[in-house]
Design a protein that fits this description.
The complex is a heterodimer of chains A (345) and B (336).
Chain A: E1 4-8, E2 15-19, H1 20-42, H2 50-57, H3 63-98, H4 110-124, H5 133-152, H6 159-182, H7 186-196, H8 205-224, H9 226-232, H10 236-241, H11 246-268, H12 274-286, H13 290-314, H14 323-341
Antiparallel strand pairs in A: 1-2
Helix pairs in contact in A: 1-2, 1-3, 1-13, 2-3, 3-8, 3-11, 3-12, 3-13, 4-5, 4-6, 4-7, 4-11, 5-6, 5-11, 8-11, 12-13, 13-14
Chain B: H1 8-31, H2 39-47, H3 53-87, H4 99-114, H5 119-141, H6 150-174, H7 176-186, H8 195-222, H9 226-231, H10 236-258, H11 264-276, H12 280-305, H13 313-332
Helix pairs in contact in B: 1-3, 1-12, 2-3, 3-8, 3-10, 3-11, 3-12, 4-5, 4-6, 4-7, 4-10, 5-6, 5-10, 8-10, 8-12, 11-12
Chain lengths: 345, 336
């Protein structure tokens, strides 16, 4: 059996390969995500059975259920979906171009940079519309990426230097945030600290409108560039010799990665380790080809974040634990496992 | 590489200058701040105490602060030098190693679940935390064929720090009372700590300082490589364990007094080696003096930058230390 579905027109001006296994995996992940969404919508202070949740969606349920589901819980779940997808995709892109299994935007300080910009925005540009938060976080993430790349550059960038300097930048970012918060009025300090712990608590439809287009558009864009990522994975020399603009592509992909991270940070704060976990699971499922790994990684990112948020929301009810606490509780041991696995590289 | 101070008289002169610098910085730290006082007032506070604001400030705030900075700075400096020698790693530091995070986690755990609030218990718990996380990071970092490498060590430290931080956040969310008690401590500062904290841990610090200098010779031998050291008849494992114990004592005591402060120990050994070369005894001595000086200076700066508020000193040292870390990471790793 062929492992690819080929879509072509007669003239041959259009040709698209689809990896069957990836398609299957993506479909299963999609179903799982939908199931978790329904469960998550039903659980909370007032439990609603999954059936009633679906009914409420279709407009056949009771009015009260419909209100709770669509107005109170749905925005949070959709945000979880979007933030998780953004993180998963960003991680997949970064691992593709850095060619290092330990690379992730949060470990390399990109998330920290986005957070610095966002905290500065929250604290010092109070009067400006919150709609500007994603572009600002994006700007921070991009600047950090550029600084990181420049500092790690010494006749080329080696993964080793990138990781070490990334860790340094991450610590510097958290020090800057401490100082920023310190210099700000007391009222705003709480807002900033709460936001920083990495939580999707108290989001509404405005947040969805704010980052939705970004995330969807950027992931689509990344999918279009899938071939270029695949070429990058072969190494700089091979990629150059088959006619890829290596440095340009790398730069463009880094920008997309920074933009996705910025979008995720602007709503969710610093949620660690999702961007590290998702691409690894995706690659285990569908192999390293980026065309398949990207969508699966995005879906797995959503799945992880939704499950983590569900646990964070319900386990210690009525206390709402920041979701970032749970993702790092799972992610850090996995990171240690990766360290162990790559010990001889 | 030839060091700046290459003969013994020069090195001794350097120590004298260093001590003089410490004295000067202490004087500055004692006299200036939100309330400016004078040398005379400082002396009067002890000889003719009259209960005035200035006198109380000097006795209760400034003097403990100076002493804390001196002791903690020296401990962190020496701990950094020991760590870098033990791991033969130019980017080792108590913060990057996850020692601070481990100590912080254990303290928060103790306050939240065991309800401990006594000083001595605090001290022992932070020792324990520093030791546990240090051991885990060391083991994780030395996995694999090529042994301990800076990158593995840094990543292991980052992972343990993240894990400890998330556990800590989780506990603090569950227990808001503990948050109030611990948050101040977590930010890292040499100010606002009463002298009793320092008194409780000073014996351990002093023992560790002496231990470091006694270990200097064996460590010098160890730096030539495990095989050479064994060939010369050294019990390398014993030396390594002793060094580890001293490091834990130093960093645990520092954390207990001042909370997590990073990067002092990263910078000092490099500066010390630049000044006095590779002789570990001199390097340790200079690291201690430089550590005190850096922490005192950072504390004074932290007070003045945002007057009347204060920048947490941990953030100050991180902001100064990170560029240095990046410089070392760029420069020092090619040789490995």
């Amino acid at each position: 059996m062929k492992s690819y579905l080929s879509l072509r027109n007669k003239k041959g001006s259009f040709s698209f390969h689809i990896h069957k296994k990836s398609l299957l995996c993506a479909a299963v992940c999609l179903l799982l995500t939908a199931a978790v969404m329904v469960v998550s919508l039903g659980m909370g202070e007032m439990n609603i059975s999954p059936l009633n949740v679906v009914k409420a969606f279709l407009g056949m349920g009771e009015e009260q259920d419909a209100l709770i589901v669509t107005q109170f819980r749905l925005p949070r779940v959709v945000i979880g979906l979007l933030v998780g997808a953004a993180l998963g995709a960003a991680g997949a892109i970064l691992q593709g171009i850095v060619r290092n299994p330990l690379a992730a935007p949060d470990i390399l300080g990109v998330t920290g940079g986005a957070a610095v910009a966002a905290v500065a925005f929250l604290l010092y540009f109070e009067s400006v519309s919150i709609q500007w938060l994603p572009p600002v976080a994006f700007l921070g993430a991009t600047l950090t990426t550029l600084i990181l790349y420049a500092l790690a550059w010494k006749k080329g960038v080696t993964p080793l230097r990138l990781v070490l300097i990334g860790v340094g930048i991450k610590i510097a970012a958290s020090a800057v945030i401490t100082v920023l918060i310190l210099f700000s009025p007391f009222v705003l300090q709480n807002k900033a600290t709460l936001w920083l712990t990495g939580s999707i608590y108290g989001v509404d439809w405005n947040d969805v409108k704010m980052i939705g287009p970004w995330v969807v558009g950027l992931i689509a864009l990344a999918a279009l560039l899938a071939r270029r990522v695949n070429v990058q994975q072969l190494g700089d020399e091979v990629a150059t010799s088959v006619g890829s603009l290596v440095q340009f592509d790398r730069f463009a992909l880094l920008l997309i990665c920074a933009a996705l991270t910025g979008a995720a940070v602007s709503v969710g704060g610093e949620i660690s380790f999702v961007a590290l976990l998702a691409p690894h699971i995706a690659k285990m499922l569908v192999g390293p080809s980026f065309g398949g790994a990207l969508p699966v990684s995005a879906l797995i990112g959503s799945l992880i974040l939704l499950i983590a948020d569900l646990i964070a929301r319900t386990a210690f009810s009525p206390i709402d634990i920041p979701v970032g606490v749970f993702t790092s509780a799972v992610g850090a041991p996995f990171f240690i496992f990766l360290l162990y696995k790559n010990r001889n590289r | 590489m030839k060091s700046l101070l290459h003969s013994n008289p020069l090195k001794i002169a350097g120590v004298c200058i260093g001590l003089f610098l410490l004295l000067y910085l202490s004087y500055f730290s004692l006299i200036f701040g939100v309330i400016d006082t004078s040398w005379q007032t400082a002396i009067d506070a002890y000889t003719h105490f009259n209960g005035s604001n200035e006198h109380i400030v000097i006795k209760e705030v400034r003097v403990p602060r100076v002493l804390n900075a001196l002791a903690v700075g020296a401990s962190l400096g020496i701990a950094g030098a020991l760590l870098q020698s033990l791991t033969r790693n130019p980017v080792a530091d108590v913060e990057l190693f996850g020692l601070n995070a481990g100590a912080a986690l254990f303290v928060v755990f103790a306050v939240t679940f065991v309800g401990i609030s006594s000083l001595t218990a605090f001290t022992w718990i932070s020792f324990l935390g520093a030791a546990a996380s240090g051991l885990v990071v060391y083991l994780l970092g030395s996995l694999g064929r090529d042994g301990l490498t800076p990158v593995k060590l840094t990543l292991a430290g980052a992972a343990i720090t993240a894990l400890a931080a998330s556990a800590r956040h989780g506990m603090l969310v569950l227990n808001e009372k503990a948050l109030d008690e611990v948050l101040f401590w977590l930010s890292g500062s040499v100010g606002g700590r009463k002298l009793e904290f320092l008194q409780a841990v000073f014996p351990y610090m002093a023992v560790a300082w002496v231990g470091a200098f006694l270990l200097a010779r064996p460590i010098q031998t160890l730096l030539m490589g495990d095989d050479v050291a064994k060939g010369l008849g050294q019990r390398t494992l014993l030396v390594k364990i002793m060094t580890g114990v001293v490091i834990v004592l130093l960093s645990g005591a520092s954390v207990a007094v001042a909370g997590p402060i990073g990067f002092v120990g990263l910078v000092t050994p490099h500066l010390a080696r630049y000044l006095v070369g590779v002789d570990t005894r001199w390097v340790f001595l200079y690291s201690g003096i430089l550590g005190s000086a850096i922490l005192l200076a950072a504390d004074i700066a932290a007070r003045f930058i945002a007057k009347p508020a204060e920048v947490p000193i941990g953030a100050m040292t991180a902001l100064v230390g990170i560029p240095f870390f990046i410089y070392v990471a760029r420069k020092g790793l090619e040789k490995k």
